[in-house]
Design a protein that fits this description.
By secondary structure, this protein is an alpha+beta fold. It contains 16 helices and 17 strands.
């Protein structure tokens, strides 16, 4: 197996071919590749050296920007994101913790990956299931200690846009869901992240490969639509006119929160998923952060195998991050089937709330979405700021009262906002909290730079004037003095001086 061909098949576009610094390629190759790379937008991949580096809601790894780096490091990596993201950053000063691998940051989708978390099936079993029950043979299969990962690579990337509320991403997620469901006979994990981290292909772990088995988006969409027709499932859910139930008063919710033997096991939909689902229900019902936190603490304390406090905090932060608008019906049904053993069957209904697509008018909601709170704060800052500086100085409590936002919600908003700036000066009782927006702060900086340039030019002109007062009259002296005075006049009256030669 040729790894260069594997990664060329996976990444025909989206990454630089060679490293910008320290490349081992010859100069002619680098020049030719650079011309080719400029024809497409370049993004990044995220890579991890050990599976243990996924912990406590954070990921320890680094960011790859070229195929050359990927090829050099492949043997030392355990997982990576085979789909390309627009950008990536580090969340700590040591540059070890990575962030940016959210679906909204996806630049392009190169492959769909199916996780088989068992070794009860042979490679031939997997291939037959793909041929008989799914879209076709995979491009390659990776074997791990616990199972397999099947890569279905696209012949050309699907580029993701935020137009029409990420419609392309929703279509891709439905295709991914259908591929995973079609391989139910070999126990494909339908809850595995569609476009997250997966095993890195190496010469040691690839047990099947055929680089001719690639797929176009057109044929995958057509196949996925046929799958949906078979189960009468439309691509976008249309809400019914049923009244919305209070989820916390349903029989299935009551049964779930009174189940105490839910375990936290790797690869099992269990304790962590239950706590996250309950947190999303609290969020969807409009509970404040503290109320949901107290509820989860009480539920967790009753479990035979409770979750740690740090993990609960990370779960709550994720549920209230603004990335989700409510729980998944399928997750709730799976949790009930796996863990509630009272012989009763439950009908799970969310009424007409299609969480991931529809949003009520703001006046009909008790809880505003983060983007609306963010705009409220921007409007408030813009109206209150003085001409002399971009910051307004308010305590966090004053800001919450002015905008009508809970303090916990404000803290969560500040973690994910890219438009607000908060600063604290001083210590203790003398500390002051300043608030502004990125736009206002940039305008302020640009004005400072402009003022400094004008002051510098004015000082320079004055130095020239002082110097020319000591000159003896010579040829051209009068012409020079006229030009200097024009400069001085322009700096004081914002009028342009004419060049010495009279040209425009």
């Amino acid at each position: 197996m040729n790894l260069v061909e594997v990664f060329d098949t996976l990444l025909p576009k989206g990454l630089l071919t060679y490293k910008k610094i320290g490349s081992k390629a010859s100069l002619p190759k680098r020049v030719a590749a650079e011309k080719q790379d400029k024809q497409n937008r370049q993004g990044v991949l995220f890579a991890v050296r050990e599976k243990a580096h996924f912990a406590n809601g954070q990921v320890k790894g680094y960011i790859l920007t070229s195929k050359e780096s990927l090829l050099e490091d492949a043997g030392a990596l355990s997982h990576f994101t085979p789909n390309v993201y627009r950008f990536g950053t580090y969340s700590d000063e040591a540059r070890t913790m990575i962030k940016g691998f959210s679906e909204e940051n996806l630049q392009q989708i190169n492959t769909f990956v199916v996780d088989i978390d068992t070794k009860r099936y042979t490679v031939n079993d997997l291939l037959l299931a793909c041929l008989d029950e799914s879209v076709g043979l995979p491009t390659w299969i990776i074997e791990s200690d616990r199972g397999y990962q099947l890569y279905f690579v696209l012949s050309a990337p699907l580029f993701i846009s935020n137009k029409e509320n990420f419609r392309g991403l929703k279509v891709a997620k439905r295709i991914s869901d259908n591929i995973k469901r079609s391989l139910k006979s070999v126990e494909a994990d339908i809850y595995c992240n569609d476009f997250g981290f997966f095993r890195v292909p190496t010469k040691d772990n690839v047990v099947y490969v055929d680089l001719n088995n690639t797929y176009t988006m057109h044929e995958l969409i057509q196949w996925s639509m046929r799958r949906d027709d078979d189960i009468e499932r439309p691509l976008f859910v249309v809400p019914t006119k049923k009244e919305n139930p209070d989820l916390t008063r349903t029989d299935w919710f009551d049964a779930l929160v009174h189940t105490t033997n839910i375990k936290g096991e790797t690869g099992v939909i269990g304790r962590n998923n239950t706590l996250f689902t309950l947190a999303l229900i609290g969020f969807a019902e409009g509970w404040e952060f503290e109320r949901t936190e107290n509820f989860l603490d009480e539920f967790n304390s009753r479990l035979h195998n409770p979750m740690g406090a740090a993990d609960i905090k990370a779960t709550l932060d994720s549920a209230y991050s603004g990335k989700y608008t409510g729980p998944s019906k399928e997750y709730v049904e799976t949790l009930l089937a796996l863990h509630v053993k009272n012989g009763k069957e439950f009908t799970v209904s969310f009424g007409n709330r299609a969480w991931y697509k529809f949003k009520k008018n703001r006046e009909d909601r008790t809880r505003s979405h983060y983007d609306e709170w963010e705009q409220d704060i921007i409007d408030y800052i813009t109206a209150e700021k003085s001409v002399s500086e971009p910051f307004i100085w308010r305590t966090q409590k004053e800001m919450c009262e002015a905008v009508g936002i809970a303090q916990s919600s404000l803290n969560a908003l500040l973690k994910c906002s890219t438009k607000l700036v908060k600063t604290i000066t001083g210590k203790g009782r003398a500390a002051k909290t300043g608030w502004t927006t990125v736009k206002l702060f940039m305008e302020y900086i640009m004005n400072l730079v402009k003022d400094q340039k004008q002051a510098y030019r004015k000082a320079l002109v004055q130095v020239v004037l002082d110097w020319t007062d000591e000159l003896e009259p010579v040829a051209g002296y009068e012409e020079l003095m006229n030009y200097v005075h024009q400069l001085f006049k322009r700096d004081n009256q914002n009028t342009a001086a004419e060049p010495l030669d009279g040209s425009g």
